[in-house]
Amino acid sequence: MSINFTLSEIAEKIGATVLGDENHLVSSLATLASAKNHQIAFLANAKYKSQLNNTNAGAVIVSPESTDAFTGNMLVMKNPYLGFALTAQLLDNTPKSAENIHSSAVIADCVHLGENVSIGANAVIETGVVLGNNVSIGANCFIGKEAIIGENTQLWSNVSIYHRVELGKSVLVQSNTVIGSDGFGYANEKGNWLKIPQLGTVIIGDNVEIGACTTIDRGALDNTEIHDGVIIDNQVQIAHNVIVGKHSALAGGSAIAGSTTLGSYCVLGGNVGVSGHLTITDKTTITADTMVIQSIKEPGLYSSGMPAMKNRDWLKNNVRINKLEQLNKQVKVLQKQVDALNKAN
User: Is the pTM of this model over 0.85?
Assistant: First the structure.
């Protein structure tokens, strides 16, 4: 079911100014290239500015600097991408992960259910679980013993929440994610691996979003902690006793090894690997495919890895890399000769 808003209503919600017909109705979002008259588009990247000439959008969210490039209805604000995000929230028609409590859900007798809780088909809720108000549990989810799920939190289908895990308020967890599974803890005795029971848990703060097929391991002794406002992409691995500071962002495929602390307002690009027992300071950004093997004490932008190039160039460079040790020895010999000449003079 579509929801219609006038441009003046949207402008009030997102903090924009209307140029054009304030009463024009829109019901959804689209790109500049595909938008129709009942839709609203946005211009956040200057390279798409030429598309303003041909768009059929009923209105476009633009910055003040772009108003002279379009003659149609506009919502003007300093940050059009923020306007897009706020408008998307306003026009969001995503259904809840569950409606009511399905008859096939298995719920233990001593579970505490808040008001307006929804539980999907075949979900299992074990003893001692606390579900806050307006919690929505998707089909086939598993909530282990004594887990706590805060109000307004939503789990999509097939999510597994292990025993004693705590999720805060307004947390969103996408399908097939596992929170609270055992950390990778073993002791080696003469080549044999002895399992170390993982006795901690996972504590998730408020307003955290976790992508699909992500795994967050429980702590070995202390807890694994994900602080408020963190966003985690799909297929991310967070090992035992990791701490992720507030409002940090982890892109897909990233992995953080055990007992590492990632500060607040940090960003990990896709496929970043962080070794264990490190500390990454606040406001650190690490670009895609970087391998972090030492603690980072100063905020900033960090990178490693090799960008894509033609195969023949990569092969040549790889040969040169293999000769670095030989080259280093030659440089040291030459430096000694230069020092000797300087001393003689």
Answer: yes
